[in-house]
User: Which sequence fits this backbone?
């Protein structure tokens, strides 16, 4: 194990950095997607409600590994061959970010929808009665209150997204699992390598879990 740490320690740390980068990029765009789809699911507009439900059901119903393969291999083929744009390629980072953003975005949409619906409807009615337009009332009154209840769930979703990055080793992204496979291939030290990787994940995820619990306690206490 010491040999792996001395020889490949920096490589594994760099791979963890790539893992965190991918998770952050995915979560950033997932928040945007989730906010749009979450708002579409709560507004009083039937077509928007249907589109939001279709998106959530479709993405959540497809295994992430299938989604990753489709985006990395299928989307360039679709754009180049069927649509005829030509020259479209995706890097592993781009495909991985899209995959995580879509997958995480579907769950974020449900978190945001639940957060908005947890706010008493009287808040929106009171804001509207004061002459606020619907979207301004949503922005100024409802969303600030909803975000308080959403923050712990968003952090938990980030933890899930961080673990899901390991699936993207199938498209060659140099995250921690993919790098660990290369280390095992070079050293034939499978148990030691995967033990180190497990500890690295455990440390990062434990820290994030503690942050989530701390924020949840603060929100419950009203701080």
Assistant:
């Amino acid at each position: 194990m010491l040999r792996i740490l001395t020889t490949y320690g920096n490589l594994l740390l760099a791979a963890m950095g790539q893992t965190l980068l991918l998770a952050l990029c995915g979560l950033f765009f997932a928040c945007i997607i989730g906010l749009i789809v979450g708002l579409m699911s709560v507004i009083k507009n039937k077509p928007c409600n249907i589109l939001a439900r279709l998106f959530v059901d479709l993405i959540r119903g497809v295994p992430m590994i299938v989604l990753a393969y489709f985006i990395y291999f299928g989307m360039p083929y679709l754009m180049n061959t069927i649509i005829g744009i030509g020259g479209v390629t995706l890097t592993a980072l781009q495909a991985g970010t899209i995959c995580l953003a879509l997958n995480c975005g579907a769950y974020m949409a449900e978190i945001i929808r639940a957060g908005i619906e947890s706010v008493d409807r009287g808040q929106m009615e009171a804001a509207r009665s004061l002459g606020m337009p619907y979207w301004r009332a949503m922005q100024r009154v409802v969303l600030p209150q909803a975000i308080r209840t959403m923050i712990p769930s968003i952090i938990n979703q980030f933890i899930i997204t961080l673990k899901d990055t390991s699936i993207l080793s199938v498209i060659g992204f140099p995250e921690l699992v993919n790098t660990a496979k290369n280390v095992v291939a070079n050293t034939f030290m499978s148990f030691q390598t995967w033990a180190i990787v497990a500890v690295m994940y455990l440390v990062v995820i434990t820290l994030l879990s503690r942050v989530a619990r701390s924020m949840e306690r603060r929100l419950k206490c009203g701080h």
Observations:
- The mean pLDDT is 88.
- Helices lie at 2-42, 46-61, 64-83, 92-118, 121-129, 134-164, 176-187, 190-221.
